[in-house]
Amino acid sequence: MSDRHLASPINIKHPDRFFIGGEWVAPSSTRRFDVISPSTEELVISVAEAQANDADRAVAAARQAFDKGPWPRMSPKERAPYLHALAAALTARNDELAHIWTIQMGILNSVAKFGTPGVAGFFHYYASLADSFPFIERHEPSSGGGVGLLVREPVGVVLAIVPWNAPLMLAALKLAPALLAGCTVILKASPEAPLDAYVIAEAAEAAGLPPGVLNFVTADREVSERMVRNPAVDKVSFTGSSAAGKKIASICGERIARCTLELGGKSAAVVLDDADAAHLAEHLAQSTALMSGQVCAALTRIVVPRNRHDEIVDALASAFSALKVGDPFDQATQIGPLAMSRQRDRVEGYIATGRAEGATVAAGGGRPSNLNRGYFIQPTVFANVDNRMVIAREEIFGPVISVIPADSEEQAIDIANDSVFGLNSTVFTADSDRAYKIARRLRAGTVGHNAYRTDFMISFGGFKQSGLGREGGREGLLPYLEAKSVLLDREPNI
Length: 494
Known about the structure:
Blueprint: E1 18-20, E2 23-25, E3 32-36, E4 43-48, H1 52-68, H2 76-91, H3 94-105, H4 109-115, H5 119-132, E5 136-139, E6 147-154, E7 157-161, H6 167-181, E8 184-189, H7 195-207, E9 214-218, H8 221-229, E10 235-239, H9 242-255, E11 258-262, E12 267-271, H10 277-289, E13 299-305, H11 309-321, H12 341-357, E14 360-363, E15 380-383, H13 390-393, E16 400-406, H14 409-417, E17 421-422, E18 425-428, H15 432-441, E19 448-449, E20 463-464, E21 467-468, E22 481-488
Parallel strand pairs: 7-8, 7-10, 8-9, 10-11, 12-13, 12-18, 13-16, 15-16, 18-19
Antiparallel strand pairs: 1-2, 3-4, 5-6, 6-22, 11-21, 14-15, 17-20
């Protein structure tokens, strides 16, 4: 492995501090989280670990800024320039942020460099809604009065909890609409991938956000749960596992706190009888290689016509076996490591379970023999999978797919919908009309056609245990707003 993994352009100013109340403050303890490179297993950096006092301080700062500060009392048009400034500060550090993404979780650096610049676009987009979104709507009152107004106001203090796989993008999807709405925010970073949040906090400081509007800590699950329980937090926006999401939802339910949950998936690709096997195989190999399959919306159940099962498995096995596993900074690499040791253990456990259940390993199934360090796993194809098997029911979060035969198009739809999840899906067919008809029957938040697709500029989120609410687009602004009816005798001067 090259020294470029650690000889990085990272320039975090205060890794030993938190950003609270507009200042970089010392933590209440000397405890640290170690960030480990998944490619080299070497220490990248150590950062401060928040304890209960730090979490309480961050929440109190956000509460004070919301209740007494200027931010919620500004108009959306007054807040929009701050979002543009924050975006500009992030854009200036695109190369650093791409490097951070790779060394924290192993994404190909070429992919990180392509994806990172788009994050600023989320802030620019939501800033643009200041001019077009109906924050105030006029209605004819039906119960007296001269004018009825539907006003949309900030929901309050938001706890934004982001995971380790794509922390920069997922933080932006929460922060940009929350800030435009007038909320104040505590950004809680993952212990495995906290560096993006440091850069975001530095960007917020550079953009001149008022004190307490954006606060940042890195914390483990216990301290995070303490913030979820804090009555000063009005809303929790969480991206992560369904198990953690259920816990957060139950806590929020105890006090009717608002929550948006973007959770796990076991997404199905429904392959029709006219699908091109070569295109399907190449596309699924490339999409599965994205972040080494550590994507909640990944297509992991491939539902195929039974009479084409072997043909499609052969094509998939060939495409998956051809993927080059290795150093994510090497331009020739097509799939990097898993993010951490425990994640590789998890994936290997599911592969063992699949074998024990009677599924056939058509490609992969182990560690690459030529890589003696790093958390690498071969991209794996299981054939002859029954949808009742564990590998077809539970989210593996790695480069593992299951090919499931169906006897008819109707049965394929039933299999696709037979899951506790409903995040993403795709229909592979040459016929757009068939694709649309099936798309309307699939219980998933997104349905693509002939490709793995999601679109955060429209909306993203899931049915069933894949979550509550939507992120991205105009739909992603609504969860950060409360609707209020104002009934007046006469038209106000607005």
